[in-house]
Amino acid sequence: MKNIMVTMVCVVACLAAFGQDRFVSSKHSPADEKVLALHEDFREALIRENVPALEKIFADEFVFIGSNGKKWPKKQMVDLLRGDVLDHHAIQCGDIEIRSNDKAAILTCTWTARATWNEGNTSTKRDGLHACTFVYLNKDGQWQMVAAHFSPLEQ
Questions:
Q1: What is the torsional sign of CA 72, 78, 80, 86?
Q2: pLDDT tens-digit profile of 116-148?
Q3: In Å, what is the CA distance from 22 to each residue of 10, 18, 35, 106, 108?
Q4: Which residues lie closer than 8 Å to 101 by C-beta, 6 or more apart?
Q5: Measured between alpha carbons, how far is residue 11 from residues 8, 20, 25, 85, 92 in Å?
């Protein structure tokens, strides 16, 4: 009985390790490649304040959940980015992991940003490191972001 238990533990450990190795593989599916390219377009559009590109990237049902827990639907996010309220100066994505199929993708990463929040005559630095989750859906061959969630990390 003891040998059976040891064997089962070893099998489960091997299966878990295999699954983890597959997940961190550098090989990406065609869906992964499309989502990774779109994610880079999103990052660049934020820095360049390219609102028309962001409107295409965000699905109509898009929702952003900030590090303070506040929810921002697409219209509010686009209006915020269209104005002079939030300016992104630099954004770096790291530790990108992606899981996808032909219909949906979940991308997680670290997000290091230098930004400024402008309210009236006051400007506040919004530099920081976040753990992020992005959800993308494929709608009739067009990938779009439907959700984003940011959680602050200690630096």
A1: positive
A2: 877 778 877 777 899 999 999 999 999 999 999
A3: 18, 6, 18, 16, 16
A4: 31
A5: 5, 14, 21, 54, 39
Asked if 111 contacts 91 with a C-beta cutoff of 8 angstroms, the reply is: yes
For 19, the token pair is 């699954």
Which pair of tokens denotes residue 154? 């200690």
Residue 21: CB partners within 8 Å, gap ≥ 6?
A: none
Buried b (16+ CB within 10 A) or exposed e, 81-98: beeeebbbeeeebeeeeb
pTM of the model: 0.78
Nearest 5°: phi and psi at 83? -80, -170
Strands (E), the chain: 58-65, 71-73, 86-100, 104-119, 122-125, 128-139, 142-152
In 10 A of CB 100, how many CB atoms? 21
